[in-house]
Amino acid sequence: MSTIDLKPLRKQFPALQKVDNGRARIFLDGAGGTQVPQMVIDAMLDYFINTNANYGGYYKTSMATDEMLINIRKDVADFINAASWKEIILGPNMTTLTFNLAWALSRDLKPGDEVVITRLDHGANMDAWKTLKDRGAVIRYIEVNTDDCSLDYQMASQVINDKTKLVAVGLASNAVGNINDVIRLAALAHNAGALVFADAVHYAPHFPIDVMKLECDFLVYSAYKCFGPHVGFLWGKKEHLTRINPYRPWPVDDKVPQKYNLGTPNMEGFAGARAAVDYIAGIGVDYGQKFKNTLPAFKGKRLDLKTGMAAVAEYELGLSKLLFKGLKDIKGVNVYGITDIERFDERCPTFSFTMDGLTSADICRKMSGEDIYVWNGEDGLGALELVEYLDVVKIGGLLRVSIEHYNTEAEINRFLEVLDSLSGK
Ligand SMILES: Cc1ncc(COP(=O)(O)O)c(C=O)c1O
């Protein structure tokens, strides 16, 4: 029995109340972007009405904006358990932050230096690093095992060597849901003297994050996959953020975070993102009590955020099992990623599959006709290299169903019922 009570929780999301053709919309595409609670919308409205200004000025609204920009960094530091809020950089999204960091780090590269990426990752966490080939870097891959899409850690221990300067890896795959053993890769990388960059975009809405435990050097995630607006965050260890010299206007200003700013930040977005963090802490206060004694290292808001995400993870595991058991019983469905229920703690509630006789776009259109929103993957779900490697593009790509904690058992059952009606039985 889960601790989360969905009724009051779902009420907080205006989008979840929308009804078309007499039916409530069913959002099963959290991996593409989550819905937002009213408190996020209110915070953005409040920003526009009460404190809208450019930052760095000497009048009231500008000073309030400066304070808000500090507070969102404190909130994100709490969410990911950073040593200091000064280690948080604000940006428009994960992709922009990652490309900018890659170009900044390229200043230190020599021809022949190696950068390691994985075949499982989102394109943003591959292509940013692949641009370093222009600086003479050699890009090396950690491949995936085709049976369960897990990373080949044996191969990782050979690929990561004393020429490696950076290892870029996702905490979880947005395409098939697998969670990666980033701690293991970080140990290999650090033994080789390399930096570790972790993409937490897909993992962040599902599990607690603790950058101190992960042992990585950088971590990125985006608020819009985590119940907030379209903004992103980069965390980096203080010594790296201070040393790195990003490309920017006014290069004379070498302070953190100013030197990482490319233009005016999305203030209303960061105001909304603050409320999204508060929303998660609220889940901790309301439903996270039973996890408290498993988290002795945390106090205050950090504890509420951790217990909130623990409650989310527990609830989502139940929905994952329900969905997967249903998928297994439908004729012609082939699920990718980890399919052993005993190992579901190694995956997110994100399931991608092919279905005999139908492309992913066919299924999406039919689902949309039933007011069920899922994502079609003929263009790769952002993880094109993986999808090509799995050789599923020619059969119409992977259909992705991605669950969030605001989804219900009834929604999963309805999705399964419609899918079953489409199967060629
Ligand atoms: C795992 C993963 N990494 C990176 C990205 C890119 O994030 P953004 O849209 O914030 O640039 C996405 C977007 O879907 C993603 O799922």
Descriptive terms for the model:
2 domains; 15 strands; four-stranded antiparallel β-sheet; 425 residues; single chain; alpha/beta; Aspartate Aminotransferase, domain 1; seven-stranded mixed β-sheet; 14 helices; Aspartate Aminotransferase, domain 2; 40% helix; binds pyridoxal-5'-phosphate
CATH topology of the largest domain: Aspartate Aminotransferase, domain 2
CATH class of the largest domain reads: Alpha Beta
Count of distinct strands: 15
First-to-last CA distance: 34 Å
Summary of the model, kept short:
This protein has helices spanning 6-11, 38-51, 60-80, 94-106, 124-130, 153-159, 182-191, 211-214, 238-243, 267-287, 300-328, 360-369, 384-389, 409-422, and strands at 19-20, 23-24, 26-27, 88-91, 114-118, 138-142, 164-170, 195-199, 218-222, 232-236, 333-335, 350-355, 372-373, 375-377, 398-402. By secondary structure, the protein is an alpha/beta fold.
Walkthrough of the structure:
The strands form four sheets. The chain has a seven-stranded mixed β-sheet, with helices on both faces. Strands 11-12-15-14 form a four-stranded antiparallel β-sheet, covered by helices on one side. The protein has two domains: 6-36 and 310-420, Alpha-Beta Complex (Aspartate Aminotransferase, domain 1), CATH 3.90.1150.10; 41-276, Type I PLP-dependent aspartate aminotransferase-like (Major domain) (Aspartate Aminotransferase, domain 2, 3-Layer(aba) Sandwich). The model has no long low-confidence stretch (mean pLDDT 97). The longest helix has 29 residues, at 300-328. The chain has 425 residues and is of the alpha/beta class. It has 14 helices and 15 strands. The site of pyridoxal-5'-phosphate has 15 residues, from helix 4 and helix 5. Pyridoxal-5'-phosphate is lined by residues 31, 93-95, 122, 124-125, 170, 174, 199, 201-202, 222, 232, 382.
